[in-house]
Design brief:
Blueprint lengths: L1 H7 L13 H8 L4 H25 L6 H24 L1 H8 L5 H19 L4 H20 L5 H12 L1
Helix pairs in contact: 3-4, 4-5, 4-6, 4-7, 6-7
Length: about 160
């Protein structure tokens, strides 16, 4: 009974000796097998890509195309972003998103995601919604390139050679 009181009171001496918090212990305890994580990643990523492509196809349908586009495109990007959580876990994913290298791309992507919805539902402006989607795509690409060593440098060098 004393052990239960210690655990519920946050005084569990054995687990806190290495400095890990309750979130880290929960994250470690809920790990999935490698095959399950790969399946989750692929399903989530493919679902995100399908939603984004379907959203782009439905954008120009008169009457209801813009709101449907905004919702599907937003769901698609959120699914694609969440897919990597299957590979490395949610806590590590959030830490990686807030890392110095990725913070700007993450903020721009999330702001453009919100502005896409605003352009679709409040301002009802197809051009602005499309512009925010392009910016969101570019920020998401830049975010993804940060995981590949020297990929950002290669892209910058390629564009500087083209200019």
């Amino acid at each position: 009974m004393d052990k239960l009181k210690q655990v519920l009171g946050g005084q569990d001496g054995g687990a806190s000796s290495d400095g890990s918090g309750i979130l880290e212990r929960a994250n470690q305890a809920s790990t999935l097998a490698w095959g399950t994580r790969m399946k989750g990643f692929l399903i989530c990523f493919i679902l995100g890509a399908v939603c984004s492509i379907l959203a782009t196809c439905l954008l120009w349908i008169p009457g209801f195309g813009l709101p449907v586009f905004a919702v599907l495109y937003t769901i698609g990007n959120l699914c694609a972003l969440a897919s990597t959580m299957f590979l490395i876990g949610p806590l590590r994913q959030l830490k990686n998103m807030c890392a110095k290298v990725r913070a700007l791309a993450t903020v721009i992507m999330l702001v453009c995601l919100v502005l896409t919805l605003c352009a679709a539902f409040w301002w009802k402006n197809n051009g602005l919604a499309l512009l925010f989607c392009v910016l969101q795509f570019l920020a998401f690409t830049w975010y993804g390139l940060s995981y590949i060593p020297f990929a950002r440098d290669a892209v910058i060098k390629m564009f500087s050679l083209c200019m």
